[in-house]
Amino acid sequence: MSTIRTESKEASVEPAPGTGRVHVVTFGCQMNKYDSQLVEGRFKRKGWTTTDELEQADVVLFNTCSVRDHAEERTMSWVGELKRLKKERPQLVVGVMGCMAQRMGEEIFARAGHVDLVAGTRQFAQLPTLVEEVRRRRAQGETKVRVAALSMEDRLALDRDDEPWDGGAHAYLTVMRGCDLNCTYCIVPTVRGRVLSYPIEHVVKEARHYVERGVKVLTLLGQTVNSFGEDLAAPGAGERQWSGRQGRPGLGDLLRELQEIDGLARIRLITLHPSYITDNFARALAECGKVERFLPLPAQSGSDEILRAMKRGYTTDLYRKRVEILRAHVPDIELGSDWIVGFPGETVEDHARSEAFLKEQGFAVNYIFKYDPRPGTKAHDGLVDDVPDEAKKERNQRLLALGEEVGLLRHGAHVGQLRRVLVEGVKEDGRLTGRTEHGLMTAFEGSESLIGGEVAVKIEGASGYGLGGSLAGSS
Ligand code: SAH
Ligand code: SF4
Ligand code: F3S
Predict the structure, then answer these.
(1) 423 and 396 share one domain
(2) Which ligand is closest to the CA of 75, given by its number?
(3) What are the tens digits of pLDDT across the range 168-219?
(4) How many domains does the chain contain in total?
(5) Which of 71, 140, 255, 335 ranks highest by number of CB atoms within 10 Å?
(6) Which residue's C-alpha comes closest to atom 19 of ligand 1?
(7) Residues 349 and 215 in one domain
(8) 300 Cβ closer than 6 Å to some ligand 1 atom
(9) pTM of the model
């Protein structure tokens, strides 16, 4: 069994500061964004600087995604672009890290000969040491240095107290790694390993660290974030008892703790799984006003037969019941969903059930993906990818259009209301952008000085994807 170790500060021998400039390119999901920040933080802590300019970097690291083939191909072509740069500057260190590195391992060296370093999904904290190893071996005259670190040995509870933070008002916070479910289409459990939740005290400490540095919005990340804590050891007699199984902490407990942090305005959650929706969690949601009333709760399909073949662990009926629990406590909750079209065996009727379910549940935000067989998954190895690409494309288009239509209805229902918008940035058209308490994207005119604050916005218009309005006051 794997254990969680807190990194010891004594163990990190500090090389001389100013050892170089690191440029990190991030593909994939929010967890990768968090991990990239974590990696940058590890380098900064050792005296390195980060740069946005690839051409100026001494080390270029790609943080990669394996979820669909397209993601991998795009990454490989980016990595390929560096071949020329490496020829001009042989001292450059090129590394591939994250999900694709974990899946392909040393095969990456064979596909891209100019890559020096491959590091898996639980090696992020070691990156500065691994880069130093490449450099040291080069300095010793080794001509073709290749360093691979792919062990899933965990090093999770990183002490980030002394890391500088210049990331603005929003920060991602990974509260658990890996996934214990086995959806048949999905590569994530293979590349990210089994679930490991961070100890609740550790998450709270990290959250405080960010808030002290000006963060107002925290997005808590986990593949099934509402299963947070299930893998932690139950507390002993005399230790604090939480509300989860045998006194373990659950996501509800974590939310209640974070709700108490002064200066933190918003808490966002990505991604929830229907199987772990409990009354306790829904109650915590109702109690904690800082948690956005928006939950990404992917259905994937509206056909029970396809859900079974996907091994999602629920039927449409069970999904409905879980949403009823949520709505009983938070009636105005908005939901988002991911959908896979063209899963093996999906008939026209199955697809029609997905459309009906999207409509019935009224998902405000929808992400649609064409099924892509991933080597190493059960669906790839055991099922025939029998839906022709043309049909996948058509179903994709249909669901996209329906998602927009339903999204418009949901967003439209907020028109005329006064909403609290946490301002997070500026859009290309110069308007400010942020999210309402229901997590809906909202654009409006205003001064950039409002970024990081919460303002009242009168909602005046809606599209299938967001809201527009005008400033009614700031708080
Ligand atoms: N843990 C999350 C999803 C992580 S992957 C959950 O369970 O909902 C993000 C999304 O990618 C999934 O929701 C799914 O819709 C999509 N996806 C994953 N594997 C896929 C595949 N092989 N083909 C197409 N889409 C896929
Ligand atoms: Fe993949 Fe399913 Fe785990 Fe989500 S819950 S990461 S889709 S295996
Ligand atoms: Fe991709 Fe890995 Fe995230 S496979 S979706 S980057 S967990």
Answers:
(1) no
(2) 3
(3) 899 999 999 999 999 999 999 999 999 999 999 999 999 999 999 999 999 9
(4) 3
(5) 335
(6) 186
(7) yes
(8) yes
(9) 0.94
